[in-house]
C-alpha cells in the first residue's frame, strides 16, 4: 500500500469514527419518538378492533369500567405521564358528553345528577394522579362533582392543594364547593387561606369576610359567579358562570314583578290577566318591557304570566336556568 493510499485510508477511518457517535446520538434522540408513535398507532388500531367487536352501548345501562389504573398507566407511559393524563381528561369530557347527548331534556354542567356519571370522579382522579399540576381537571371537578358526590369533589380539590399548596385558585375552588353546601364558615376559611398565597387577588379576603356575614345572599352568589367567569379557563365553566349570573339577575327581576303583582291584587282583588294591565307599574319598577308591554328577562325573552299563581315565570324557551 502506498503512502498516499495509507493517508487516504486513515482519513476515511477517522471520518467514520467521528460519524459513529453522531449517528448513535441521532438514534438515541429518535428512538423515544419512534416508540411513542408506534405505541399510539397500536392503541388506535387496538381501540378500533375492540370497538368493532363490542355490542352497541346502551347509555341508560352503561357502567363504564376503567381498564388501566393510574399506577399501571404511569409504568406504561415511558415517562410521558402528561400525555396519559390528557387521555384521561379527554375521556372524562367524552364520557360526560355521551351522557348529555343521550339525555332527554336540558342539563346544566353543575347539575348532572340525572345523568348517572358514576365514573367521572375516578377519571378526574386518574388524570390528576398522573399529572398533579393538571389545574383544568381540578377546576372542572370543583364545578361538576359537588352535585354528584360532594365528598369526591372535596377529596379531589384537597388533593390538588396538597400537590400545589401555593396556588390560590385551588382555595377558590374549595371555597366554592363549601359555599354550595351552605358551609359558609369553612368556605370563609378556604378563601382566607387562599388570600395568603402568592399572587392572590385582594377580593379573596373580601370573599372570606362576605361568607361570614351574608354567605347565602344573592350578592354573594353574584360575586362568586362573576369571579368564576373572569378567572376560569374552561369555556364550559365560563358559560355556566355567565348563565348563573343571568339567573341571579332574573331572580331580582322576578321579585320586583311579584311586588307589582301583589300591589295590583291588593287594590283590585284579582290578578291581572295580561301584562299590559300593570305595564306602567312595571316600568316604574325599572323593568324592561317589549312593544307588547311584556317584561323581559336578562336574555330579552318575555316572562310568562301565571295568572293562577299570580306570579312571573321564565318562558320555556329562555336560556336562563330554571333552577
Briefly say what this structure is.
The chain is an all-alpha fold and 323 residues long.
Write structural notes for this entry.
The structure is a single chain. This protein is mainly alpha-helical and about 325 residues long. It has a domain of about 60 residues. The protein has a two-stranded antiparallel ribbon with strand order 1-2. Strand 1 and strand 2 form a beta hairpin. The longest helix is centred in the N-terminal third of the chain and has 51 residues.
| Mean of pLDDT | 83
Summarize the helix and strand pattern as letters.
HHHHHHHHHHHHEE
Q: What class would the helix/strand composition place it in?
A: mainly alpha
Q: What portion of residues belong to β-strands?
A: under 5%
- The best one-word shape is elongated
Give the end-to-end Cα distance, rounded to a whole number of Å.
Answer: 95 Å
Helix content: 55-70%
Topology:
Elements: H1 3-53, H2 70-76, H3 81-102, H4 120-130, H5 135-144, H6 150-163, H7 168-180, H8 184-195, H9 203-214, H10 218-231, H11 235-268, H12 279-284, E1 304-306, E2 311-313
Antiparallel strand pairs: 1-2
Helix pairs in contact: 2-4, 3-4, 4-5, 4-6, 5-6, 5-7, 6-7, 7-8, 8-9, 9-10, 10-11
Amino acid at each position: 500500500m502506498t503512502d498516499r493510499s495509507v493517508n487516504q485510508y486513515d482519513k476515511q477511518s477517522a471520518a467514520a469514527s467521528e460519524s459513529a457517535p453522531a449517528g448513535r446520538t441521532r438514534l438515541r434522540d429518535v428512538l423515544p419518538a419512534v416508540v411513542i408513535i408506534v405505541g399510539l398507532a397500536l392503541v388506535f388500531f387496538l381501540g378500533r378492533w375492540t370497538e368493532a367487536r363490542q355490542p352497541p352501548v346502551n347509555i341508560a345501562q352503561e357502567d363504564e369500567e376503567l381498564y388501566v389504573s393510574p399506577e399501571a398507566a404511569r409504568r406504561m407511559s415511558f415517562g410521558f405521564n402528561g400525555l396519559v393524563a390528557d387521555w384521561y381528561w379527554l375521556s372524562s369530557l367524552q364520557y360526560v358528553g355521551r351522557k348529555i347527548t343521550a339525555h332527554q331534556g336540558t342539563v346544566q354542567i353543575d347539575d348532572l345528577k340525572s345523568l348517572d356519571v358514576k365514573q367521572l370522579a375516578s377519571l378526574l382522579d386518574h388524570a390528576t394522579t398522573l399529572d398533579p399540576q393538571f389545574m383544568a381537571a381540578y377546576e372542572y371537578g370543583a364545578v361538576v362533582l359537588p352535585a354528584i358526590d360532594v365528598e369526591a369533589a372535596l377529596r379531589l380539590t384537597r388533593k390538588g392543594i396538597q400537590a400545589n399548596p401555593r396556588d390560590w385558585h385551588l382555595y377558590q375552588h374549595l371555597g366554592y364547593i363549601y359555599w354550595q353546601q351552605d358551609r359558609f364558615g369553612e368556605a370563609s376559611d378556604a378563601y382566607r387561606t387562599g388570600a395568603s398565597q402568592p399572587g392572590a387577588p385582594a377580593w379573596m379576603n373580601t370573599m372570606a369576610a362576605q361568607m361570614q356575614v351574608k354567605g347565602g345572599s344573592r350578592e354573594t352568589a353574584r360575586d362568586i359567579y362573576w369571579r368564576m367567569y373572569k378567572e376560569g379557563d374552561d369555556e364550559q365553566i365560563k358559560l355556566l358562570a355567565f348563565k348563573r349570573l343571568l339567573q341571579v339577575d332574573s331572580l331580582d327581576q322576578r321579585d320586583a314583578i311579584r311586588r307589582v303583582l301583589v300591589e295590583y291584587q291588593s287594590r283590585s282583588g284579582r290578578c291581572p290577566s295580561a301584562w299590559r294591565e300593570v305595564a306602567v307599574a312595571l316600568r316604574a319598577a325599572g323593568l324592561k318591557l317589549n312593544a307588547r308591554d311584556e317584561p323581559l328577562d336578562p336574555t330579552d325573552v318575555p316572562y310568562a304570566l301565571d295568572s293562577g299563581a299570580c306570579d312571573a315565570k321564565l318562558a320555556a324557551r329562555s336560556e336562563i336556568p330554571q333552577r
